[in-house]
Amino acid sequence: MGTPPAGRVTRSWNVPPSETADSTTAATTVRGPSRRFLRTADGVRIDARYEPATASYGTGTPPGGHPQAPLAIVVAHGFTGDLDRPHVRRVAGVLARYGAVVTFSFRGHGASGGRSTVGDREIHDVTAAVAWARELGHTRVATVGFSMGGSVVLRHAALHGREPRARTDAVVSVSAPARWYYRGTAPMRRLHWLVTRPAGRLVGRYGFRTRIHHREWDPVPLSPVEAVPRIAPTPLLIVHGDRDAYFPLDHPRMLAEAAGDHGELWLEPGMGHAEHAVGEDLLHRIGRWVAGAAG
Predict the structure, then answer these.
(1) What's the rounded Cα separation, in Å, for the pair 154 and 229?
(2) Do 56 and 68 touch, CB atoms closer than 8 A?
(3) Nearest CA to 4 among 212, 213, 210, 214?
(4) CA–CA separation, 240 vs 177, rounded Å?
(5) Rounded-to-integer distance, Cα 86 and Cα 213, Å
(6) What rounded mean pLDDT belongs to the chain?
(7) Which of 8, 68, 117, 153 is the most exposed place for a label (fewest CB within 10 A)?
(8) In which element (H, E) is residue 72 found?
(9) What are the tens digits of pLDDT across the range 99-110?
(10) Strands 100-104, 71-76: parallel, antiparallel or unpaired by DSSP?
(11) Residue 177's CB: how many other CB atoms inside 10 A?
(12) Phi/psi class of residue 83: alpha, beta or left (left: φ > 0; alpha: ψ in -120 to 50)?
């Protein structure tokens, strides 16, 4: 499978493919679906898509007759995903019943520019997506991340929790690791080969449409378990399956222990890993939790 040229928009609605939205641009109003590039603080172009809410869950219609609720949900996919993947679109479709949804492709994934740093500089991508949601007029913004994306939204909330344009009002982390460099399962050993070896990075590029940076972390970013205590008082939900083949249950339990009273832990019987394993009923539960917690 080939890799699309970095920075090419494959489909757009309101915005021409050549237009790029810097994360520092003035507030705008979007009433329908939109797709555009966002410029991160470190200069990477991120492919992003906005969809209005399909229902106003407990919020009513804001002044001026705007049809969507004030809540926006930013979805952060897992490693080797992108915003056009069917499982990401399924997640977005369910969550759109509870608020507008912003999906995006992390750097090095899909049509976004740059190279993946596997959870390090991806924090800038989430920051740009959250800022875009606020620029579109949403007064409440929640983040929902899966696997790698789950670790990134934890760090984002910890490090940007008090910045008006970048902060989030609720955080959901699904199937995230608690600590870095974990190799205790066969899938994680394969992932480390993919990331650290030249042959693995070729497989990532041509097999998974994921361009992976060759440099190691320097410095090593704040780990998820170190980030979690800094998220309070922002509401936090940790979701993990008891059949997760990547990260066993000690990971969510470590995160929940670090969160203390401000975090909530859902251990889901029979659930595997990340977006592929999240059923529609669980997505509705997450949507209801977000709508209530971000209120």
Answers:
(1) 10
(2) yes
(3) 210
(4) 10
(5) 25
(6) 87
(7) 8
(8) strand 71-76
(9) 999 999 999 999
(10) parallel
(11) 24
(12) alpha
Please identify which residue in the block is written with the tokens 């997450």: 286
Place of tokens 């590029």: 205
Contact 33, 89 (CB under 8 A): no
Cα torsion 282, 284, 285, 286: sign: positive
Residue with tokens 């979701």: 239
Residue whose token pair is 């994934």: 109
**Tokens linked to 229:** 């205590």
Task: At 182, list the tokens.
Answer: 């974990």
Written as one letter, the residue type at 272 is G
Measured distance CA(56)–CA(22) in Å, rounded: 29
Place of tokens 């056009």: 84
Q: Token pair for residue 265?
A: 């832990």
Residues 107, 115: Cα–Cα separation, whole Å: 6
- The secondary structure element, H or E, covering residue 230 is none
Omega within 30 of 0 (cis) for the link into 233: yes
**CA-wise closest residue to 129 among 232, 51, 221, 18:** 51
* d(C-alpha 165, C-alpha 218), whole Å: 27
- pLDDT level of residue 161 (50, 70, 90 thresholds): confident
DSSP letter at 261 equals: G
Q: How many CB atoms lie within 10 A of CB 25?
A: 13
Residue 277 CB contacts under 8 Å (≥ 6 apart), including other chains: 175, 241, 243, 244, 271
Spatial CA neighbour of 182 closest among 228, 243, 247 = 247
pLDDT confidence tier of residue 146, bands split at 50, 70 and 90: very high
**Amino acid 38: pLDDT:** 97
Up-side HSE of residue 279: CA atoms within 13 Å toward CB?
A: 8
